[in-house]
Amino acid sequence: MTTEAKKNSNLPWVEKYRPKQLDDLISHADIITTIDRFVKEDRLPHLLFYGPPGTGKTSTILAVAKQIYSPKEFNSMVLELNASDDRGIGIVRGQVLSFASTRTIFRSGFKIVILDEADSMTNDAQNALRRVIEKFTENTRFCIICNYLSKIIPALQSRCTRSSVDTCCYKAQNNYHVLCIYVDVLMFIKTLACCSVNITGDGMKAVVTLASGDMRRALNILQCTHMAYDCVSENNVYTCVGHPLRRDIENIVNWVLNEGFTVAYNNIFDLKTAKGLALQDILREVHLYVHRIDLPVHVKMHLLEKMADIEYRLASGTSEKIQLSSLIAAFQVARDLIVQEAS
Predict the structure, then answer these.
(1) Where is the AAA+ ATPase domain (predicted)?
(2) pLDDT recorded at residue 34
(3) HSE-CB of 81 using CA atoms within 13 angstroms
(4) What domains does the chain contain, in order, with CATH numbers?
(5) Are 13 and 223 in contact (CB under 8 A)?
(6) Higher pLDDT, residue 214 or 127
């Protein structure tokens, strides 16, 4: 095995199988078709990609850059600055300005500056950048990538061609098209992986469900489960990421609705301790489960309101034991409301 092959074998699948060209990208067909035409006609504009994490924003522009430049030219023609880099006004006036203002001797055409996580840039840096973009458009193209478009100043937005890269941001189990995209990507990784991935249908669905629209997370879950277990099944996926199983949620809802307070509290606390579950994860799954239960409207509204308050308090750093008691109490009150209505 060569040194390069050995280096690649240790890479996470997210990086190892990152698309090398536009044809490798799955989904975002309209955006890819448009950019591909820009590249072929050598008329690439300034770009602004925005959308949730893990939907392919950085992969898209890197695929464009790798399609335009050879591996030897890439480092000299592409400047990539990420959120880990200092990108205040000093960097814009220094490193970005210096890179954009210089031409390469041995290659004609434009350079590309990629500003990843640009929504974390200060307003001063963004204001300084707009003049740099205008002044060096002939020599350099800028690609601004962000999660929240509202954090990019309007002056920068107007100078770029905006694209919303959010096709995969919806829960895949509720969208057949997105589910197909995930299956295509995961099966592609399964085919390329040096060791065959034994994955079941419910395992595939569990990976897609837990990813919640983030393809990067889906691949990380798939790789971790594959390395930890011989088979990527639903139970193994949920166990690997420390997420409550469906039958655990069914048991929890059964306890809080049918058992006494003390029994329900002890059972849930023992389950949390044995499986290392977080109350926030349990609460999220119980919330989805409540929507599927046939309850009177006012009872369901009571439960949803109480669970929203509990989630807010958990996010504020309060005690899980106290909030678990509050969750059980909310269901006990709901049970009493159902009994009163029946009588």
Answers:
(1) 43-172
(2) 86
(3) 21
(4) 3-164 (3.40.50.300), 176-241 (1.10.8.60), 246-342 (1.20.272.10)
(5) yes
(6) 127
